[in-house]
Amino acid sequence: MIIKGKSRSGPGALAAHLGNAETNERVTLLETRGTVADDLRGALIELDAYAAGTRCEKPLYHAAISPEPPHRLSPEQRAEAIDALEATLGLTGHARVVVMHEKKDREHIHVVWSRIDLKKNRSVSDSHNYRKHEECARELERRFGHDRVQGAHAEREGVERPDRTPSRAELRQEERTGIRGKQVKQEVTAAFRASDSADAFKAALEEKGYVLAQGDSRDFVVVDRAGGIHSLARRIDGMRAAPLREFMAPIDRQSLPTADQARDLAAELEKRARDADAAKADTKLEKDYSRGDDYVSQTKAAAKDHARRQEALDGNAADSKLHKSDPSPAGEAFGNASDELTAEQKSRLNKIQERYDNRFADNDHPAPDRQGEVPSGGRSRDR
Known about the structure:
Blueprint: E1 2-8, H1 11-18, E2 26-33, H2 40-49, E3 60-66, H3 75-88, E4 96-103, E5 106-114, E6 116-117, E7 122-123, H4 129-144, H5 168-177, H6 181-193, H7 198-207, E8 211-214, E9 220-223, E10 229-231, H8 241-247, H9 259-288, H10 298-325, H11 329-334, H12 343-362
Antiparallel strand pairs: 1-3, 2-4, 3-5, 4-5, 6-7, 8-9, 9-10
Helix pairs in contact: 1-2, 3-4
């Protein structure tokens, strides 16, 4: 079981978050206690109003109770878990609102208390709340027979400190940008371990699409390709703030862009990366269609084919004209035929021509030439 929580303000924004049905399959308001309003927004506004007359700036305490799958809480166990956490935090009897979210066969409970003790007109301390969360979670796991989830603050018993879980802000950033914190941590850690100086580390980050920037509350942050902001120390595996500060000492923080400026730079780097990918794709496409050993220019091939066809047409036209002017029986029989004759056709042509010539030879009449003229000394057939 995992329990998280912290003090906060802003009842309107919290109501919008808890009532968001787009990111959850089902949202159920289970309980409002100590308020006149029975709707989520109205009840949270009333809880916030209890701080009037005090100097408390964060009068709400928001906690989430998440049983580890495949475990689910029965209604009785749910009520027992809420009361146990309420007692551990010192908020017994305070006004509260309970909301249940269900998503992907997993449910978790949100509880919001007023931190104001109405009898003393002062807020209840929220010190050491992380440890209190884990102590309560371990106790509930034993009561309900759930598998144990190792925490970082209580009952470690020599177990190495586990990695911190992402905050709600980090989870929302992951949903917005589509870039997971684990992926960023792997890439930034790899760049850090491959660098022997701060300047080399900065260059390695830029090669991976990250921009090193100065943070508002931290020394250094990195901005990813989608504009997400990450604490540099938290994105290097096993790194502490003091050793990182010493390693990065050669770089002047004031020379680095702010987080907002880094977002613009990151967007420019992402655009360049997209353009480079598009150029590579175009180059590959051009290469796929480039000339190979068996390449034949379709333009030149078409021109040559056209020339061959035209020559054939011109030759056929000349032969046709010649055959039409030939008065011989062979010319009349084959004057309109193509010059591409078969062997049988050529044999017939030769026989017809031979009979034609023999007829004039037997009658002592010369055969006319191809212009229809009679040779000198001969007589015309027409009298």
